[in-house]
Amino acid sequence: MSGADPIWLYRTVRLIRRFEERAIELVRSGDIVGGIHPYLGQEGIAAGVCAALRPDDVVAGTHRGHGHVLAKGADPGQMMAELCGRVTGLNRGRGGSMHAADFAAGVLGANAIVGAGGAIVTGAVWARRRRGEDLVGVSFLGDGAVNEGMLLEAFNLAALWRVPVLFVCENNGYATTMPVADAVAGSISARAEAFGIRASTVDGQDPAAVHATTAAALARMRADGGPEFLEARTFRFDAHHTFEHAVRLDYRSPEEVARGRSRDPVRIAGSRLPAAERAAIDADVEAVLEAAVAQALAAAEPDPATALEYLYASGLTARTGGG
Amino acid sequence: MSGADPIWLYRTVRLIRRFEERAIELVRSGDIVGGIHPYLGQEGIAAGVCAALRPDDVVAGTHRGHGHVLAKGADPGQMMAELCGRVTGLNRGRGGSMHAADFAAGVLGANAIVGAGGAIVTGAVWARRRRGEDLVGVSFLGDGAVNEGMLLEAFNLAALWRVPVLFVCENNGYATTMPVADAVAGSISARAEAFGIRASTVDGQDPAAVHATTAAALARMRADGGPEFLEARTFRFDAHHTFEHAVRLDYRSPEEVARGRSRDPVRIAGSRLPAAERAAIDADVEAVLEAAVAQALAAAEPDPATALEYLYASGLTARTGGG
Amino acid sequence: MPRLSYRKALNRALADELARDEEVFLLGEDIRVAASAVTAGLLKRFGPERVRDTPLSEQAFTSFATGAALVGARPVVEFQIPALLFLVFEQIVNHAHKFPLMTGGQCAVPVTYLVPGSGSRTGWAGQHSDHPYSLFAHAGVTTVVPATPADAYGLLVSAIRCDDPVVVFAPAAAMELRAEVSDPVPVPLGRGRVHRTGDDVTVVAVGHLVHDALAVADELAGEVSVEVFDPRTLYPFDWDGLLGSVARTGRLVVVDDSNRSCGIAGEVIATVVEQVRLQAPPRRVTRPDGAVLPFAPVLDRAVQPGRELLRHAIAHVSKDG
Amino acid sequence: MPRLSYRKALNRALADELARDEEVFLLGEDIRVAASAVTAGLLKRFGPERVRDTPLSEQAFTSFATGAALVGARPVVEFQIPALLFLVFEQIVNHAHKFPLMTGGQCAVPVTYLVPGSGSRTGWAGQHSDHPYSLFAHAGVTTVVPATPADAYGLLVSAIRCDDPVVVFAPAAAMELRAEVSDPVPVPLGRGRVHRTGDDVTVVAVGHLVHDALAVADELAGEVSVEVFDPRTLYPFDWDGLLGSVARTGRLVVVDDSNRSCGIAGEVIATVVEQVRLQAPPRRVTRPDGAVLPFAPVLDRAVQPGRELLRHAIAHVSKDG
Ligand SMILES: Cc1ncc(C[n+]2csc(CCOP(=O)(O)OP(=O)(O)O)c2C)c(N)n1
Ligand SMILES: Cc1ncc(C[n+]2csc(CCOP(=O)(O)OP(=O)(O)O)c2C)c(N)n1
Ligand SMILES: [Mg+2]
Ligand SMILES: [Mg+2]
């Protein structure tokens, strides 16, 4: 990943944007079962943060995790196949949207439990550093997650043990339908600062700004070893989850949505490139996704006889459910 | 309770002190099974805080809970009977040291799980205020508890919903053998302040100072309804738990213990009374405890046939373990 | 007769109890806008003090409910995902459940924990598809799994009125059911229901699987006469009701959507064979041991107990003897 | 032969594995000073990087262990109280257990959770006296309950070497046992042990109750020939071993210190009767349903399965038929 490279940043936000749009189509067509939590509007954060990472660094994502997985370098075709539940998927069709993982790319997994990733990535970074590797980790989390005790405990461990994890809070103003102001007493940054963790704030809609702030934090972290916190202010352009396309939930006014959508990370990153370059990237991204979707849909579904495969790493075989 | 009355304060710290010393004797004699977490040295906190409470206010205690229960007004005889597992005990012998409760006196219970009381007392206060009662609550907690996610979540609820709970952190420097500095990143007060909760600090060895600081906090809380936090610096004079009398754990130097014991809340409170008055109180406390111990030891043990009594408030009868 | 959906039945039970008793209030995530639809209309009718949206602080709000219950309130706590019960297992089992005995009867903890959409919600995968009712039956917390709209209403009402904590699992696979229900009434906890009488074999089915059991019983009607017993409450279990049925049929199959080992199906078999001599070895159809639901729909389905396996079990039990 | 205490056996297993494999490290509360004695001497020998005292942040340090394991470490997490497993139930069951399947085999989670002093520690009362092994057997997490010093050593070693999460319950009532053990060796997970052969009835006993079963078997030696089977691992259970025993004796009693409903005793009975025709109805001796251990010692004891009830169950099973 070439750092602040505006081409990489634009390509990445564009890739995530179009990936999500294609995925939503596949939800509509029934090829993706169970729906997704679209990352639309928040692409600048995954792109900006991951632009500052090295391949050996690790990230833990969230339920709204596609952007993190893609920006960290997972293959879009395997990712799409995973969403479609195919054997060629990143997780061989066993994980789906909320558990997509790519250990080879340093993605410890999206995670369906809010607030769970922080301690996991802290442990992973600590264990690898004990072996002499000098990686860092990123824990992505939503504004809702800062109310989870398990995450606050993870802040404590990372700070005490000086584990270099960047906790990136994607503050999109809501936990599902719960406004931040109704859910977070005090402030988001103060939650980290209470543990002696340095906190920064950044405009999450500007991928270059996210990158710059992240890079500065990572430089400090790589130098002295402790965790940091980054609050990226953002806006979720679409539904909390695609089920909201069918069931209207009343919590954001049309005006608020229009205002939020007016600051578009894809447009902001694109405006920094010449139109021709942008068009070339767009075309390339379309081709990548066209192939991704085609490959995903062409791939085999898993054999039901293998439903319990991978249940135990030790090779233990579970008793089946009888009959 | 007569507020800052130095007589009440001295009597209370002295009562707790001697109660604990008698209880330790009963642990040694085998009349109290399982041991206790002595409150020795920390008496000034329970006394000073409870002096500022009204009878209808509620408190939730800790594993080191005898002081809270006594200072809030539970009968020492019933409390001692509870520690001895007798039917005349506060909990009819079902709870013991770590679960002693006296709902009539506003004691929701000592609690064997560190960090658990905060949310419970918050809910209790909220529910009673919804009925128009204007009580407040106190959640006692140790320095170790501020590392428990569930407690930090409780800070959030109390602050968001403006429930008047005073979180009183008895910072005795250790969680069992773990020094605060090794366990608490940032600072203890900052943990509460992060949630917008006002925090004060007080010398926990001076019952009058604890009372004054508590009274000021409660006045603000009764006026505007939100929670507050109070860190009381203190020192545990004896073992974490009486098992330490048998098994030596190496974590505090003799010098540190001597230094800590030099500031004794009983002596401090006592120095504020004329010697004769102090002696009269001492004699009275001795008499109360003599009677408490005698009554406890004379009381019946529960009938094993009633082992499952009170298991279900609904009257449900559990299947027994067979045979 | 008016048709009532399962989801609406839960909604109506909440509304009726909120209206009947000022001490009832609701806590949960996104319940104001009624993301699960179970709380639809309640904010408007009862206001934000009694329909309280919570931050994502499950442990604290579960114990907040305990505290409120200790002083006489009757909270109903909605959980969006069955796995959230894992997150608050300590708060329910070690606190809410234990308070009455530990305090020697000084208090009660009448809290209802409601999971609308338990079990597999196809496509929600590993961490959102558990059916952990057997865990609560082990802990001894009253546990109900209504199969029908009428029972959804009646058991939820009884749960709210119960002086002990009660966990209500509303299986995702039952949430869209509809049935003719004129005037729903409370259903006593701890009482099973024979949905269909039969002479040859008793099938105990839990939650949504009651409907599968009934379908299979209908299919097999010519060959074997199946009695379908729905315990409705898993703890306390209606042992008398079940033993009466099995004493007549002499044969037993249990179908249940939780993991096999130490699940409710095993408990049913154990308790029955301790007391009744069966004419053939009993069988159970469950999730596998240690099941984790894989994402791909074909795999997700393969891990759940289905009609095919149930037919097989019935055939086996009927033949043997 | 040298005598080895159960507690020392655990200590030695930890020391041996720390010495053998750099990836092994310990996490827990007060383990540096070895409050439980199980980690005695290890700080000095292996240093604070590998013997890590944690703050009271059980959820985070449990998931910290998961994360470390995901990248190849082999953490052992000590819990001071069995109920702390309730507090981290989500982290173990919903994360550590599920990671391999959910990721399609991309990882393993070799974590050992060690509870030295599970079950009743007389006088510690309601919240410190649970024996929640059946919960983990239900979840499908490998669960061991060693009964003897040799097994404590051997099973803990195997747990640490296992590529899946393993919960090790060391019953408080077994911690002070001593036995002659010359050279302790690994004991395979999932393999039971016949402690005493017999012809008339198989008694399955878990953990410290193995010793009660042996004592009762000795007492009854003149009247009934009792075989004592110790599963050692509750999940995965050694069904072949047990079925072999029961096929010979034709009679079954199970004694186990967890709650009755959905406990391991019920599972044993269910699995056996699905496959073996017994000569008499089986029996189990357990804690009551929903047990909460009251404080007073006489009550605490009354709630635990004891020899009297076991004798009664054996008598009943032997007579019937
Ligand atoms: C512990 C937990 N509680 C509740 C949920 C259900 N849930 C899934 S996403 C979500 C909202 C999360 O909000 P936030 O952290 O702000 O992330 P966002 O969805 O806004 O990206 C909720 C309540 C969950 N998955 N995990
Ligand atoms: C959640 C939880 N974790 C661990 C324990 C075991 N334990 C009991 S007391 C204690 C130390 C508590 O320290 P602190 O909060 O400072 O209170 P203190 O004992 O110093 O009064 C520990 C670790 C427990 N009871 N509950
Ligand atoms: Mg959000
Ligand atoms: Mg302390």
Walk me through the topology.
The complex is a heterotetramer, with two copies of chain A (323 residues) and two copies of chain C (321 residues).
Chain A: H1 6-29, H2 43-51, E1 58-60, H3 66-71, H4 76-83, H5 117-130, E2 137-142, H6 149-160, E3 165-171, E4 174-175, E5 178-179, H7 180-183, H8 188-193, E6 198-203, H9 207-224, E7 228-233, H10 254-261, H11 265-270, H12 275-298
Helix pairs in contact in A: 1-2, 1-12, 2-9, 4-12, 5-6
Chain C: E1 3-5, H1 6-20, E2 24-28, H2 42-46, E3 51-53, H3 58-70, E4 74-78, H4 84-87, H5 89-96, H6 99-102, E5 112-118, H7 133-139, E6 142-144, H8 149-161, E7 166-171, E8 178-180, E9 193-196, E10 201-205, H9 209-219, E11 226-230, E12 233-235, H10 239-249, E13 252-259, H11 264-275, E14 283-287, H12 297-303, H13 307-319
Parallel strand pairs in C: 2-3, 2-4, 4-5, 5-7, 6-7, 10-11, 10-13, 13-14
Antiparallel strand pairs in C: 1-8, 6-12, 9-11
Structure description:
The complex is a heterotetramer, with two copies of chain A (323 residues) and two copies of chain C (321 residues). Chain A has a single domain, classed as Rossmann fold (3-Layer(aba) Sandwich), CATH 3.40.50. In chain A, 43% of the residues lie in helices and 10% in strands. In chain A, the strands form two sheets. Chain A has a five-stranded parallel beta sheet, sandwiched between helices. In chain A, strands 4-5 form a two-stranded antiparallel ribbon. The N and C termini of chain A lie far apart (53 Å). Chain C has two domains: 178 residues, 3-Layer(aba) Sandwich (Rossmann fold), CATH 3.40.50; 127 residues, Rossmann fold (3-Layer(aba) Sandwich). In chain C, 38% of the residues lie in helices and 20% in strands. Chain C has a seven-stranded mixed beta sheet with strand order 3-2-4-5-7-6-12, sandwiched between helices. Chain C has a five-stranded mixed beta sheet with strand order 9-11-10-13-14, sandwiched between helices. In chain C, strands 1-8 form a two-stranded antiparallel ribbon. Classes of the chains: A alpha/beta (323), C alpha/beta (321). Chains A and C meet through loops of A and helix 3, strand 14, helix 12 and helix 13 of C. The structure holds thiamine diphosphate (TPP) (2 copies) and magnesium ion (2 copies). The site of one magnesium ion has 6 residues of chain B, from strand 4.
